[in-house]
Amino acid sequence: MAFIDPQTLIIVGLAFAIGGILKGATGVGAPLIAVPVMTSFVDIRFAVAVFVVPNLAINLIQSIIYRRALTNKRFLLILCLFASLGAFAGSLTLYQASSGVLEMLMAGLILFYVGFRLYRPNWRLSMSMAHKLNMPIGFLAGFLQGAFGISAPATLTFLNAIKFERTEFIIIVSIFFMTMSVIQLPTLLYVGLMQPEHLVLGLLAVLPLMGGMPLGAYILRQTTPDLFDKVILFILVGVAMRLLWAL
């Protein structure tokens, strides 16, 4: 196993702690912060590989906690099936594409997500329309997760628009992300992008990720959700600018 230098440990730890704060406050969104923050300092393939194990672990825990809240089982099954196909295709893209292109596209995805959230904060979808869209959106989200480690531009934009009750929203997102991680892990191992140091760092990263979650819940209680959301969007713009500046 390659030596893991202290600077990398600090970067990974901080990225996951910030991701944990967001997840603790909203129930979702850890990769939206953690992966781009890591990518602004290290290679995107490294960031995506390190996040797979923590993503699997934390969403497995949330799936168990909120398992009774799931009512739209058919909707979730179809979403996860197509997300699995997309995650496989995205993981192969991560292996084949150049880092510079991937990082530029990641920055673009982040800016698109921020812009959409600011322009259409109250966008809504009916459940009947959501059933028509869950196949293509599922595949797109899976592809984004596999190739960039973040699927929020598709996942959260889509699921937020359906306006699920909060606990069902969390269980759907948790099973969805867990499914994609289950596909990513063996695929990245097969193509050689998942190395022992990625697994070790991923296991260690579960600690700051879970440690940040109570802090996120506390911060949300002390402020308004709208203010917290704007702070997160501001951080994302800063991360996107850093990615573009480094190209």
List the helices and strands and how they pair.
Layout: H1 6-26, H2 30-39, H3 44-65, H4 73-96, H5 99-119, H6 127-148, H7 155-162, H8 166-191, H9 196-222, H10 225-246
Helix pairs in contact: 1-2, 1-9, 2-3, 2-10, 3-8, 3-9, 4-6, 4-8, 5-10
Portion of residues in helices?
A: over 70%
Distance between the termini: 29 Å
- Please, what is the oligomeric state? single chain
Strand content: under 5%
* Shape assignment: globular
Mean pLDDT across all amino acids: 86
From N to C, what is the helix and strand string?
A: HHHHHHHHHH
Largest sheet: none
Secondary structure tally, helices = 10
The class by helix and strand makeup works out as: mainly alpha
Number of strands: 0
List the uncertain runs.
none
How many whole angstroms does the radius of gyration measure?
17 Å
Compact summary:
The chain has helices at 6-26, 30-39, 44-65, 73-96, 99-119, 127-148, 155-162, 166-191, 196-222, 225-246. With 247 residues, the chain is mostly helical.
